[in-house]
Amino acid sequence: MLTGVHYIYILFILIVLITMALKRDTIIPCIIGIFCIALYASKDIAFSVGTIFNSFIVATKELIGIILVISIIVSLSKALEEIKATQIMVSPFIKVIKNRTSAFFSVGIVMLILAWFFWPSPATALVGAIFLPIAIKAGLPAIGVAMAINLFGHGLALSTDFVIQGAPTITASAAGVEVTDIIKDGMILYWTMAITSIGIAYYMLERDIRKGKIQVETGIEISESETYTKEAKISAFIVPLGFLIDVILMFMFDLKGGDATALIGGTAVILLMAICFINYKKDCLEKITSFIQGGFGFGIDVFSPIIPIAAFFYLGQLGPFTESLGTGYLPEASQGILSDIGLALSNAIPMNKVMVCSIESTVGAITGLDGSGFSGISLAGSLAKVFGEAVKVKIGALAALGQITAIWVGGGTIVPWGLIPAAAICKVSPIELAKRNFIPVMIAMVITTIVAIFIV
Fold first, then answer.
1. Helices 100-118 and 120-137 sit at what angle, rounded to 10 degrees?
2. Is 282 exposed, middle or buried, given 0-12, 13-18 or 19+ CB atoms closer than 10 A?
3. Which of 28, 69, 209, 399 has its CB 3.0 to 4.6 Å from that of 384, i.e. a possible disulfide?
4. pLDDT tens per residue across span 321-380
5. Quick one: signal sequence residues (predicted)?
């Protein structure tokens, strides 16, 4: 049953979406939304004002791991740039990546493969740190690099999850089918979504570059005759070696998600200390402080406007809602605001193949608005089971459709609070990245839904 809290949340989601469509920042609508939800639920103004701050704390706790690893990677990057080790590291790739097309798809394919094996978060840090300067030199702007990392990694890799199979396992369990059914029956949908969204995204990027709407940055210059210090060469060797060892360890010990990200972050810290000692000797203590300050300054600068936005959308999940406001403000059987809305929507509309696929796709996308693609796939699987039995369609394909829309939205391609890692590592605005991805992903979702109507 939906309550006033749910309707207020729906209202502010619409306000946020309209604000985004008008290309305006959404911090104020999100903060007002938090206050209004708390005020309606508690009838206490002082409590509602305090809830704004509490929700910020909850959002920060959710994001702190990403903030730290990105800040540390940027600190390491600044150290490598200062000693010109970055130029040494990227020079072997220059012969392969000649133009922005090859740069975009090379970055994307490498990201796809790493994300399949180790999930997108740690892969983002690795791919971004190594390929960003190469791609920029080849003529691909930083926003294009972020798009490639984002669409191939947080979109295609995470929504398919063929290797680790975390997503299809959750979906299949809720849908009452085998994991192989989710993968096999949804294969056409996975690739329809990927090819359509990535193809349109690159076309629009290329078009806007040609029209001068996107400025192509000047990449790093690598001179064949330039000489480098012995210390810089050692640094350029140990950094990729360190991350290569990480990849091996992830594979050997089955590290993924937060564990893999922690390994990358810890390795970056150790490498930063080693580089400072090798290159600055007696001044290493002061230099590492300088690099850490620069990296964390960048992290705070990028993440600070995202926290208030994330705070509002995290309220859509039961855990963060309870942590921010406390218990007793939602119905006892509530699964969280967004899940409740999805269930209510499914119960209010008559069933046929067209409506079933449309609802499955829409509900998946709605549950993804909290920035966590995995939070909605259990609901997507459950709905697929109900719809599939009612309308006699392939439950596996229908569940795959819900999995696709939930993860492409929530996994981090079109909501700014979900695509922070790619934006941060490429030093672009997450809001601008979301805007670049929005049209291609939405068009692809519609086309994928239409295809699903014919194959379920």
1. 170
2. exposed
3. 399
4. 999 998 888 988 888 887 788 778 777 777 789 988 998 998 888 877 767 667 678 778
5. none
